[in-house]
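User: Please run a holo structure prediction.
Assistant: Happy to. Please share the sequence and the ligand.
User: Here you go; the ligand is 2-oxoglutaric acid.
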Amino acid sequence: MIFNVLIADPLSEDGVQPLRESEDINIEVNTDLTDADLIQRIGKFDGLIVRSQTKVTREIIQHADNLKIIGRAGVGVDNIDLDAATERGIIVVNAPNGNTNSAAEHTMAMLMSLTRNIPQAFNALKNNEWNRKKYVGVEVKNKTLGVIGLGRIGTEVSSRAKGQRLNIIAYDPFLTEEKADNLGIRFGTVEDVLREADFITVHTPLLKETKHLLNKEAFQMMKDGVQIVNCARGGIIDEDALYEAIQSGKVAGAAMDVFEEEPFLDNKLLELPEVIATPHLGASTVEAQENVAVDVCQDVIRFLTGDSVRNPVNLPSVPQEIMYKIEPYFMLAEKLGNFLIHLADEVIEEVNIYYAGDLNELEVAPLTRNTVKGLLQRHLGDHVNDVNALFLAEQKGISVHENKTSRAKGFTNLLTVEVKTKSAVRSVAGTLLNGLGPRIVKVDHYSVDFTPAGHLVVIHHQDQPGVIGKMGSMLARNQVNIATMQVDRSDIGGDAIMMLTIDRHPEQELLDQLHELDEINDVTAIDL
Ligand SMILES: NC(=O)C1=CN([C@@H]2O[C@H](COP(=O)(O)OP(=O)(O)OC[C@H]3O[C@@H](n4cnc5c(N)ncnc54)[C@H](O)[C@@H]3O)[C@@H](O)[C@H]2O)C=CC1
Ligand SMILES: O=C(O)CCC(=O)C(=O)O
């Protein structure tokens, strides 16, 4: 199968080259598409790669009938409607590491330019104005830099700022005093940072909680003459409040790489001589663009050719060494879900997944997603995948629970899936046998042992002499060959189960005939 991938923003050729060379992928580079063009054309593409310019809206995603992956060559994914992508089962990947260095360097360049008025002085010179008095700056040495958001870039900025002899005070919801000590910086609350810093730089994503993090109240808390840098995301700073704070003299200056509206041709902040700005250039270096393009294109190739991705955004990322251990169980998990959904003939309300033995030691979230995918696919079809399985379960009101235990009832690993409906609890358990692959070893409380593949028939019957013969003759009369057969019972003469693997799909008429036998309570055909 050939996959079509659209590259909708300018991308370094180093990344694009492997896509061009892939025999499985056709690329189209078109960086001039309007929203309307995208809506009209997106339907034919399996992959879409963007930087920050293209806004991948819900409407575009709704028209993306074949789209499987969206790649963001960079960190921030606020230009992609993640919920809409997840709901449609489209994986979103980004390139979180490739531009850290460039963004940190840009932040330092902006800070130093701001404190020494370099852009303003240069402009004045260009206008034939030699004015040394007007552009007196301040030193940064021994002053305090407040860092809000100590992730990849915030940490890198702190380390560089220490080289400039700045003292660092930082706030991040994941920063502990111990971590701060190890980094040689001071740990504070947001308020501490706002009150104590001479310069403040923000390095958070734009989230509900970070929108207008620096607002009127925040500016009021700051030292007089504070200077602000934003090389993260427009919207973290309330631009109206910043404008006022600069006009009132509270804030001495601001260096902005990102803005609430981008791109813009007119922003009132730029009317202020205290503001210096760049048009979202934090990641615009040759090196960063090569890195992010290579990273994102590799993930797109990996995904479309059936491999696991390195930087998923709407799926938890699983390290390669852990993936290697859990991947063999993927098929088992999905097959158990596929199998069990056929036994549950009422609406499922709850799913419990029990991981036992070796599985108890593993990161099992991907297996949970595969199990739920297997359960949902019967009724929701192929659009259910790892990305949207849990979302769709929640949407259908099904709660999903994971449980771990070391006790695997004699197996080295045991995966048990239980579904609760209004009036019943049904379950199936399977194991991965060395060299033999997945086996189903329990159906409800019955012990069995069969490969979850091919045409299966589950028969619940009364344990009475002759029933197996009657069933076998009926299948034979209908030219159905039995490949494997398992029988188990609760007690002598009680409820029992027959598990058959047969060589072809049985017609409904034949299943009805089996059901009509007195001793047979229930017949379910399952194709796996
Ligand atoms: N100007 C540009 O061209 C570039 C901008 N960026 C932007 O820089 C920002 C940071 O990127 P990375 O460091 O790679 O991300 P990251 O995910 O490594 O770090 C973000 C940090 O912000 C913290 N955070 C979240 N909410 C917070 C809050 N309310 N207060 C304080 N901290 C909070 C998180 O705990 C995390 O540690 C992102 O917005 C990204 O989009 C990234 C690269 C280039
Ligand atoms: O694509 C770009 O240059 C923007 C980079 C950026 O803002 C990010 O990676 O979050």
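The longest strand covers residues 348-357.
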